[in-house]
Amino acid sequence: MMTFIEPFRKTTSSFVALVFPVSALLVVAACAPQNPRLMAPPTQYGIVATESKPTILNVQPKVDIMFVIDNSESMEDEQETLSANIDKFAKKIATNAGIDFHVGVTSVWDTKMFAGMQKEYGHGELRRLKDPKGQYLPDSFGRFVSSKVDYDSHLAQAGFSLGKEPGWLQVLRASLKIGIEKYNEKHEVEKTGGPENEEVFSPVTRALTDKPGDKYFVAKSAEANKGFRRVDAHLVLIFITDADAWTPDKKDGSRDDVAPGDLQDFLADTVGPGYLQQVTVLGALAKSSDKASDRDPVIRHACSGCSTQPDNILSFIKSMGGKSMGLRGASYGVEMAKLGSFVRERALTRPKVDISNATPERGTVKVSLNGEELVLGEGWVYDDERPNSLIITKDLSDVNGAIDIKVDFTQVDAGALNSGRVRGSNTR
Question: In the listed set 348, 370, 388, which residue is the last one of a domain according to the structure?
Answer without folding.
Answer: 348
